[in-house]
């Protein structure tokens, strides 16, 4: 989030790394299928020490190359029509018991209004803490089934987020949805299943990636739990995949993003624009660090992360490790540690994506992964907040190309935030540069050959934010456009008459590949008039 911010091993083993993902068979004209490019010819090497090279999992199995080629051609032709807009559903769309929707009347009216405005579909969190709360392997998707059927009848597509994290403790989290009870029970027994900083503070938003391969959750590994959950979802919604559910976004960490929980807002631990803190002091992470240090011939480096990197709310120049001149980040030790820390994150992403692609290898859906837009202190040499989050990105090193290359091997889309932000809107003293960051991530996606999708990091209803999104996502050559944009978020404020009119114009401009504002405004006035009763009904119901 940005602020002001082992089931398929045998089949996969026969494929060389870099084998392109199998694209689904071409969908009917009414189905939106987004582009996720295959890996480019020639391997793109990850920039880290040889001793820290991760094991590379085979790419997504290929079932039908002819179908893949046809689907790629169809997606390319669709891009000329603009950038499809999705809208995020409320975090508590489904009741915590999992059996039904919250505010069903509001959801129904909202979906109808969104469809009338030209929105492509909606995004919804499928919470692990709701759907598998009752016990391991006991899945309850009843409330989500109700939503999928409602979306189908309305003619909207769905991006389903496999949310393996806790809701609550991050910006915009208006409700609390914890991890499944049986997972929390195991975390109580073994506190090292939680991410841990150098002061022993535990963070239980997401199970520590250090124990990915350990059978610590009632006899299953965390990755097995994630894979089993996705398989259950696939089987339960088989009739909706491809025609209604068009994308599976795979949760990878806190806020669903591929990162460490380095800047938690809960209990006032972190405040923008602090640099955050490394999360590598649970015993599973420390065991890996110790082994890496021994392999590098520096066993003294294996006792923990840097102790001179400040705390959550420091700024880079407050610290010895992140400071501009002679900072520890630029030393041999700093490179070793940051390479190991980022490698662990990449390997986690690789393991979870391997599970996801094994489950959905024959399903006509896209796979995507969300990467955080950490734009504060981006103008400094060390890029400290990105480093503590696990992105080894500095003034002299590209930390996003390795991530994009990982996604390319699995044929996944890179979903990035803070697309609505402009540099001059942010505090200058914190050297925030969201526009430059978005450009860098876009370049990495193009180099790796993956589709780039976007989100706004914070709720914005003004024309200035809309203009920025249109310029960044849509007003480009077809090959450089974003493959989709997801708007945060559906709620009563969106359906305020003025906001709704501006939003309808925004959707028209996006779907028309940056069509002129005047024409979009004229069309939006008609949409606002025709949907007035629906919008009022939705706004009232959402406030109740």
Automatic annotation (TrEMBL):
Q: Name one GO biological process term.
A: polysaccharide catabolic process
Q: Which reaction does it catalyse?
A: Hydrolysis of (1->4)-alpha-D-glucosidic linkages in polysaccharides so as to remove successive maltose units from the non-reducing ends of the chains
Query: What terms describe the molecular function in GO for this protein?
Result: beta-amylase activity
Summarize where substrate binds, as residue positions.
125, 165, 173, 370, 375, 417, 456-457, 489
The record's keywords, sorted A to Z, are: Carbohydrate metabolism, Glycosidase, Hydrolase, Polysaccharide degradation
Q: What is its EC number?
A: 3.2.1.2
Q: Name the family the entry cites.
A: Belongs to the glycosyl hydrolase 14 family.
What protein am I looking at? Beta-amylase
Specify the species. Answer: Panicum miliaceum
Upper lineage is: Eukaryota, Viridiplantae, Streptophyta, Embryophyta, Tracheophyta
């Amino acid at each position: 989030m940005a602020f002001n911010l082992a089931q398929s091993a045998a089949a996969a083993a026969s494929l060389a790394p870099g084998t392109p993902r199998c694209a689904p068979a071409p969908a009917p004209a009414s189905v939106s299928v987004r582009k996720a490019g295959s890996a480019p010819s020639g391997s793109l090497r990850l920039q880290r020490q040889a001793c820290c090279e991760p094991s590379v999992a085979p790419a997504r199995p290929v079932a039908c190359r002819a179908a893949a080629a046809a689907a790629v051609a169809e997606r390319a032709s669709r891009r000329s029509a603009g950038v499809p807009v999705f809208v995020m559903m409320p975090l508590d769309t489904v009741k915590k018991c999992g059996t039904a929707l919250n505010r069903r009347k509001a959801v129904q009216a909202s979906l109808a209004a969104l469809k009338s405005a030209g929105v492509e579909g909606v995004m919804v969190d499928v919470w692990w803490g709701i759907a598998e709360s009752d016990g391991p392997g006991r899945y309850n998707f009843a409330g989500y089934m109700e939503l999928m059927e409602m979306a189908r009848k309305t003619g909207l597509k769905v991006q389903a987020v496999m949310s393996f994290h806790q809701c609550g403790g991050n910006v915009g989290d208006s409700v609390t949805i914890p991890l499944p009870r049986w997972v929390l029970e195991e975390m109580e027994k073994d506190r090292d299943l939680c991410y841990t900083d150098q002061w022993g503070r535990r963070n239980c938003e997401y199970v520590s990636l250090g124990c990915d391969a350990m059978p610590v959750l009632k006899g299953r590994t965390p990755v097995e739990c994630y894979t089993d959950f996705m398989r259950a979802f696939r089987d339960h919604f088989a009739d909706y995949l491809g025609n209604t559910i068009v994308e599976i976004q795979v949760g990878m960490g806190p806020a669903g993003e591929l990162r460490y929980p380095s800047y938690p807002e809960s209990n006032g631990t972190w405040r923008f624009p602090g640099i955050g803190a490394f999360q590598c002091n649970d015993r599973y992470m420390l065991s890996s660090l110790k082994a890496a240090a021994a392999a590098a011939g520096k066993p003294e480096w294996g006792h923990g992360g840097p102790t001179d990197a400040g705390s959550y709310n420091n700024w880079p120049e407050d610290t010895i490790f992140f400071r501009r001149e002679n900072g520890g980040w630029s030393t041999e030790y700093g490179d070793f540690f940051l390479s190991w820390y980022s490698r662990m994150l990449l390997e986690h992403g690789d393991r979870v994506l391997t599970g996801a692609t094994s489950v959905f290898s024959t399903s006509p859906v896209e796979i995507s992964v969300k990467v955080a837009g950490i734009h504060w202190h981006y103008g400094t040499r060390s890029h400290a907040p990105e480093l503590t989050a696990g992105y080894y990105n500095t003034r002299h090193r590209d930390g996003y190309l390795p991530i994009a290359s990982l996604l390319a091997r699995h044929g996944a889309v890179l979903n990035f935030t803070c697309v609505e932000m402009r540099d001059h809107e942010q505090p200058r003293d914190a050297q925030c540069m969201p526009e430059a960051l978005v450009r860098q991530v876009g370049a990495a996606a193009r180099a790796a050959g993956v589709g780039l999708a976007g989100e706004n990091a914070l709720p914005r209803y003004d024309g200035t934010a809309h203009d920025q999104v249109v310029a960044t996502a849509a007003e480009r050559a077809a090959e450089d456009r974003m493959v989709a944009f997801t708007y945060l978020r559906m709620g009563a404020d969106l359906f305020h008459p003025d906001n709704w009119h501006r939003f309808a114009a925004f959707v028209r401009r996006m779907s028309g590949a940056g069509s002129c504002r005047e024409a979009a405004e004229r069309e939006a006035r008609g949409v606002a008039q025709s949907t007035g009763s629906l919008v009022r009904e939705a706004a009232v119901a959402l406030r109740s």
